[in-house]
Design goal:
CATH superfamily of the largest domain: Winged helix-like DNA-binding domain superfamily/Winged helix DNA-binding domain
Strand content: under 5%
Number of strands: 0
CATH topology of the largest domain: Arc Repressor Mutant, subunit A
Number of domains: 2
Distance between the termini: 22 Å
Shape: globular
Largest sheet: none
Order of helices and strands: HHHHHHHHHH
Number of helices: 10
Radius of gyration: 17 Å
């Protein structure tokens, strides 16, 4: 399977934050209808971020629910200093850190991997899922901050500076975490073409 086809099986990279949402005045006023609407719209992004951070696991929906609950609580206090998407991403990352340390449920079905594009044939689809599972098993062995750095930069496509702003740390610290994470992933999975494609995209 070609590198391009393997890369196509990865979950989509993050969307760039858009312009300010005109509804943000309502969440500040604690309008439950608008809060529910905004949280519902954020669900696909939140679940995608958590999938990339946590991997395919049976409690992924629990993590998504925790993140959405915290986002809903934060919305009435939102002051617009960062985009709504950035606020949600930061909260989701904090929730992911809590789940990093939890024992994985026994069920780790690969069906939790988001369906790839229809044009990818079944054999390639299966190979891509197996590659994603190998990558996430490797990431589980990394320290939490290095794991997050790898996901944010190598999978979501952020620069170290962008990831550092999201984490609330320095770009130097983020580059150090990323360097160590990449070295460990290369050591364990250097022969895997899917991982090589990700590392090449983030270099």
């Amino acid at each position: 399977m070609t590198t391009a086809r393997l890369r196509a099986l990865a979950l989509p990279a993050r969307a760039r934050p858009g312009a300010a949402d005109p509804r943000l005045e309502a969440p500040r006023a604690n309008d439950p209808v608008v809060v529910a609407e905004v949280v519902t719209e954020l669900l696909p992004s939140v679940r995608g971020w958590l999938h990339r951070l946590l991997g395919p696991r049976a409690d992924l929906d629990d993590a998504a629910q925790d993140a959405l609950t915290e986002i809903a609580r934060a919305l009435p206090r939102y002051e617009g200093r960062a985009s709504l998407k950035t606020l949600a991403h930061r909260i989701t990352l904090r929730v992911a850190y809590r789940y990093f340390g939890r024992r994985r449920p026994e069920e780790t079905s690969l069906s939790l991997v988001a369906p790839p594009p229809d044009e990818i044939d079944p054999e390639s689809r299966a190979m891509g899922r197996e590659a994603l599972a190998r990558l996430h098993r490797c990431l589980e062995r990394l320290p939490k901050r290095r794991r997050a750095a790898f996901v944010l930069c190598c999978i979501e496509g952020m620069t170290p500076a962008e990831a550092a702003r999201l984490e609330g740390t320095s770009a130097v610290a983020m580059r150090s975490r990323l360097m160590h994470a990449r070295a460990e992933v290369v050591r364990r999975l250097s022969a895997d073409p899917y991982v090589c494609a990700l590392l090449g995209r983030s270099s």
